[in-house]
Amino acid sequence: MQNGVMKAWLESSHLAGANATYVEDLYELYLSDPDLVDEEWRHVFSDLPVVNETAVEQPHSRVRDYFRRLAKETTHLSATVSDPDVDAKQVKVLQLINAYRFRGHQNANLDPLGLWQRERVPDLDPEFHNLTADDFNETFNVGSFAIGQETMKLSELYDALKKTYCGSIGAEYMHITDTEEKRWIQQRLESVVGQGAFTKDEKLTFLDELTAAEGLERYLGAKFPGAKRFSLEGGDAMIPMVKELIRYAGTNGAREVVVGMAHRGRLNMLVNVLGKKPQDLFDEFAGKHDDTWGTGDVKYHQGFSADFATPGGDVHLVLAFNPSHLEIVNPVVVGSVRARQDRLGDSDGSQVLPITIHGDSAVAGQGVVAETFNMSQSRGYRVGGTVRIVVNNQIGFTTSNPNDTRSTQYCTDIAKMVQAPIFHVNADDPEAVAFVTRIALDYRNAFKRDVVIDLVCYRRHGHNEADEPNATQPLMYQKIKKHPTPRKIYADNLTDNDTIELETATSLINEYRDALDRGECVVKEWRPMKLHSVDWEPYLGHDWTAEWPHAIEVSRLKELANRLCQFPESHKLQSRVQKLYNDRQAMANGEKAFDWGMAENLAYASIVDEGKRIRITGQDSGRGTFFHRHAVLHNQGDASTYIPLANIHDKQGPFQVFDSVLSEEAVLAFEYGYATAEPSGLTVWEAQFGDFANGAQVVIDQFISSGEQKWGRMCGLTMLLPHGYEGQGPEHSSARLERYLQLCAEQNMQVVIPSTPAQVYHMIRRQVFRPMRRPLVVMSPKSLLRHPLCTSTLDELASGNFQPAIGEIDELDPKQVKRVVLCSGKVYFDLLEQRRKNEQTDVAIVRIEQLYPFPKEDVEAALADYQHVTDFVWCQEEPQNQGAWYSSQHNFRSALPAGAQLEYAGRPASASPAVGYMSVHLKQQKALIESALTTD
């Protein structure tokens, strides 16, 4: 409430005069933070009448009348303010405390170079609060300031506030609305006035780790001058920070830690944290490589796994493989962590810790960061909080002014969207770094939420070691050239304080260099791996032809189909859903043929029946965008939900389906990460419309299609991409089949267009039970979900198998066939219906259900009866420059009889995937069908 309003409704009260000013200030303090006022006053203010903010006069009179009545009925308030001058000062002292909690970080000593031009914060000056020099010797109540005493001299309080909030740590947490979380942080910071306490051995450890961080970079710079290494120099404190996080996490019960980062500092992380042998790294710099797998990747994209000894036991470490595409690795890491937690039954995230390491420009500039923050507390994606470290070199890539890279004061302001606390820390103060590291992890473990550490540092060289940073950053790099390294600053500090001898600091340098010369592991905590995150052994060495158990007894399949249709009698379904389940019961009873939705759900049931895990996510995955899946049943009476697939029987595998946040990039990256850490089950991401996957193209390009070739990382992720031309316009027709086919090479993934319920049933089961793990991209249907011709029998599900190609199904005389039309997907049914309507017998239609890896033998078998035909047509709905034509026509031709010609029937080339007018769509569709079926 405004000060003028407060004065107006106190004028006639017993609390008028000087007391009115006091209450006004006290109420203002209460509005900023209720904990800053006494409990008695909190009760008074919380009982104020509820005010309608759109009204003007009446609410003011109600509050004024309330205080008048309060003054008449009580005497304790007048006693509380019996000395208004003293009490007014007391309020100002509490306001000063509040100012430091809110804005102390703006005057903190965060920049190692001292270049930050920070505006003066008047709120932090006692004079701003009318506190004079005379008041500094007075004793005041410190309210909730968690220093362990109720009263302090103002001079002592002022000194404590500056040490707590304006030293090497700048804490931002007052944007958090949860009072318990704010109190927790205040207790941790204020009780020790922002200063961590460390033993001599701990300090020596920090120096040793800074020595290693600096020593590796200098060694590489001398041994491989000019080679790109994206050095950590200037941000050396990241190494002791991450190691302290791992040690502390292990002490607190963590058993696995997964780390994601961009390329800067990665080589240092690999050698000095995960224990990669320096000699292996040197061989990579020298151009030596292992020819046993794939195309490989540059050294600063590589990942690594190891075990790390902590006081609480060994912790399994994973540094994720990832490309340079800035922040895209973060949701991959979080997805991998969720899979590990699910496997361990770690529901609160206490056993598996995600750490993501960001760049200052990237964390503010890349939208996937906001997407990942947004996912952090959602049901399908929470992992108990992520510790996020920003290596803030203050200039990002090449820009010379933070105003060019963001519109906020700090690069970490993006974290406030989820009310994450942010701890800014000067990277030249390793003890402050270790202190906030412990606070950050304790916060994450206590509240299961994300927390951010902004490691304010600098970059000693250019973006890479070949760059000349003085060209664009003259003042900064003149300062950097003269600035001592973090190791030297800390070593000098320890020797000046007589913590260590100078000889000790020197010996650490020599010992580390000798260790590098030997080329063996330099991490004392490294241990041989015993804690394997998952067992990939059953999936090694298998190819596409690997046999898998595809047959199921009809009786068992019927039993599963019946269980799919069961739900509590009290669970009232919406009428259309009830009809759908009535139909499914009829299918289970053998009274109706199986449609797409029932066959798909039955595939899932057969998988969990054998103890396998299923995870399906997407923006409408519970229901299905096109109202076909209905795996989650919503009670129309109380909105409760029931999932038949999660209730097949007591010993089944877990079935989870989540409607995702409205994201493609972060969600798909998350599911990729999940699938790389959980090979034995089925992980599915379903696009709302296949077109929308283009928002996640970086995930498809840099992980899904190439991760195995670059890093040897197998992944069995399944992507369901609704695709088909039904006249819905440019953005709701095509899943961009051509993009996936363009990415296909070296047997890297599968691209499938199933056309029957039996095909989707077998395709899904094959992805789980075949002992091979590669991504599966499915052009899934829309109109076929309820097409009268698109059905399958129970026998086709029970005893059939996936058919990469399907030959002619009508009883045509092969000798009468003059033309063979090859096609995939929905267009098959358009061709079939029109041919039957035309009563044609001279055109055969063959479906190619799997476009990659191209099933040449299966296609040849489907064409065996047509060796006399020379007129072949590829028919597709997509424009000529899209779809399968350009990417796959060489495969089609390879399966044709000798001397045969292959022509194209489809829409003309187009810049847009589809037209936006139904009339034009229908005209085009009719034309392409006629073109395919018309023989000369």
Explain what you see.
- The protein is an alpha/beta fold.
- The chain folds into four domains: 1-82, no CATH class; 200-527, 3-Layer(aba) Sandwich (Rossmann fold), CATH 3.40.50; 554-722 and 734-799, Rossmann fold, CATH 3.40.50; 805-933, Rossmann fold.
- It contains 32 helices and 25 strands.
- It has a nine-stranded mixed sheet with strand order 3-9-10-8-7-4-6-5-11. It has a seven-stranded mixed sheet with strand order 15-12-16-17-19-18-23, sandwiched between helices.
- Helix 27 links the parallel strand 18 and strand 19.
- The chain is globular and about 110 Å long.
- The termini are far apart.
- E1 component of the 2-oxoglutarate dehydrogenase (OGDH) complex which catalyzes the decarboxylation of 2-oxoglutarate, the first step in the conversion of 2-oxoglutarate to succinyl-CoA and CO(2).
- It is an enzyme of class 1 (oxidoreductase).
- Keywords: Oxidoreductase, Thiamine pyrophosphate.
- One of its GO terms (cellular component) is oxoglutarate dehydrogenase complex.
- This is 2-oxoglutarate dehydrogenase E1 component.
